[in-house]
Each structure stands twice: as C-alpha cells, then as structure tokens.
Design a protein that fits this description.
Length: 338
C-alpha cells in the first residue's frame, strides 16, 4: 500500500484521537457530570480565568456570559485576565484549582493539542479538565493579498498554487490555529507556500498589505474591513457552511477545498476534580444564558456565534479538533514552546 501524506495525516490523527478518548476520558467524565444537579452549588463567587488580555476575543466571550450567569447562579461571576503562553498559563491554573469555583474560558488549542505541541507543559488536556460547554465558535477567513488576479475564489486559489514554494503565508505564530489550519489547507489544496510567522494577526495583515506574504487565515472581525475596502481578497470561510459572522463570503468548499473545515472556539472548562453535580448545574446555566437573544447578539458583535451544548458535545468537538490538527502536528513535526 502506498503511504501518502494524506494517509499519514489521517492515520496519525486517528491514533491521537483514540488515545485521548479511551475509557475514563473526557467524554466519559462529561456524561457523569451531566447526570446530576445540585442546587446548593455555587456556595461562593465563581471565577472565570481568561488567558488573554482584556478586549481579546476570548475575554469578550467570557464577559458576555458572566453577568447573566451570576443572575442564574445567584452568586457573583467574575472574569480575571491572566495573559500568557497563548492561554496555557491559565489552563494550568484551572487544571490545578481545587476550590470547586474556579473555571476557565479556554480556547480550542488549550483543550486539544496543547500537549502535542509542547510535551513539557505541566497540564494534560486529556486528564486535567472536565468539559462544561461551548461558548461560541467562529470560522477563519482564507484571504489573499489585494493584488491577486482573478475575480472568483477558484481563480485566486489557482494563483496561489501557481506561486509554488515562492509564495508565503503568514500566521500569528508557530503552532497557532492559523498555522495548523494553513498546513491542513495546503495538504488538501495542492498549495506549497512557505510559512512566515509574525507576532500577531495585526502584523499578518500588515504583511499582506505590504505583499510580504500572499496568503493567510484571519478571524472575520479582522479580515472583513480590509476585504470590504478591497485591500485584501477572500477565498472563503473555513466553516462547513456560510457564517453569520461573514455572511457574504462563500466557504472554501465552494472553491473545492475539501476536508479542511476549521473553526476557532472558546469554551468553559473546569478542573477534572470538580464535582459532577456542579458541572451539570453550570452547564445548565450556560445553555440558558446562550439561548438568550441578548447574549447571542452580544457574542455576535464580538466575533462569536453562540453554540450552546452539553459537556458531551464539547468533548466530541475536542476529539474532532484533536483528530484534524493533531494529524498536522504529527505529519509536519510542529512544536511550540508556548
């Protein structure tokens, strides 16, 4: 049997996912957590830790739900920002919390591939967290520089292919979703552009405008103003269907890029040792909050589409992302010190 890069990608990813969801894993614990409720919890204020600065998109998501949660739980719900290491510093603190009232608004990288990227991390996403529920999701937008020829997504994608290894794509850093997502797209779309890491997405956009790079994956909130002004062009969003966050854009599937669906997300997670009854009550409150039109609209304005769901649904999403991006990490030998 011929071993292709795609077979390596899928096979390696499947092995990663199988190990993460063995008996006693997230999904099993999440099912236990959802089985009961305890109206006595919480007995004191609840802390939501965020691993990014105030005003960053995960912070905005956490603040959109904090006050409505406090009304349902009848206890103050506070948001504390502790930036560092792409959220992994906060993830470590949440994993080690023992007070039953400290949780984290964590991004997908913290809850899926963190240990694969950096085996030196002191927390293990498989063992140290209990899923509570998704807060919101967002696609990324595959964009090209404004001088790319062609009017359609397919024509712009062909231009990128024809650049060969002389083309460059930009990301906000090694091991970020933008980096792994681009490598996934490259494997599915016959693109050979080379990676140029920057320190953040604003710098990626500056690189596109200066034609230092020709391709990137960007959050809709950052990409859309430049797309509307014509300074950069959009091939499409990476979600399976069109997104309300960028409703005028097609999907990359429409440009015949298959098997590269990808979204960023923020979710609530608790320490693995938190009482199952507390997890169940917190999830029920979160689902109620996210079902509110006011909260849904507030999230939409900050770049998130509300995604209420069960702990088990979040665990399944972790599995899917670990399968998809873990395979990229294995195939490309990507490592990060963050």
């Amino acid at each position: 049997m011929k071993i292709t890069k795609r077979r390596l990608l899928e096979g390696g990813a499947a092995a990663v996912a199988a190990s993460l969801f063995a008996p006693g894993s997230w999904a099993q614990r999440a099912g236990t957590a959802a089985a009961g409720g305890d109206s006595a919890w919480p007995t004191k204020p609840v802390r939501i830790l965020v691993g990014f600065p105030a005003g960053a998109s995960p912070d905005l998501a956490a603040r959109a739900i904090a006050e409505p949660l406090s009304k349902i739980l009848r206890q103050p719900v506070t948001v504390e920002n502790k930036p560092g290491a792409s959220g992994n510093l906060v993830a470590d603190q949440v994993a080690k919390a023992t007070d039953d009232h400290t949780i984290g608004a964590l991004i997908n990288g913290n809850l899926t591939i963190a240990k694969l990227l950096n085996p030196k991390l002191s927390f293990d996403p498989e063992k140290d967290f209990a899923p509570v529920g998704m807060i919101g999701t967002a696609p990324l937008v595959l964009v090209v520089s404004g001088n790319a020829p062609g009017k359609t997504s397919a024509e712009q994608l062909l231009w990128v292919r024809n650049l060969g290894s002389g083309g460059k794509y930009g990301t906000p850093g090694v091991g970020t979703v933008g980096h792994l997502g681009m490598e996934l797209i490259k494997s599915r779309a016959a693109i050979t552009a080379q990676h140029k890491p920057y320190t953040g997405n604003p710098q990626v956009i500056a690189g596109l405008l200066a034609n230092e790079i020709q391709l990137a994956l960007l959050p809709p909130g950052l990409a859309m103003p430049h797309i509307k002004s014509g300074k950069i062009k959009a091939i499409g969003v990476t979600s399976p269907e069109r997104s309300p966050l960028a409703s005028e854009l097609p999907t990359i599937r429409d440009a015949d890029v298959r098997g590269a669906d990808l979204e960023i997300w923020t979710a609530l997670a608790a320490p693995a040792g938190m009482k199952p009854a507390a997890i169940a009550r917190l999830n029920a409150a979160l689902v109620e909050v996210l079902g509110s039109p006011e909260v849904s609209q507030a999230l939409l304005k900050t770049g998130w589409q509300a995604q209420p769901g069960s702990p088990d649904a979040l665990a399944k999403r972790m599995r899917a992302d670990t399968t998809r991006l873990g395979g990229v990490i294995i195939m490309k030998g990507i490592h990060s010190e963050a």
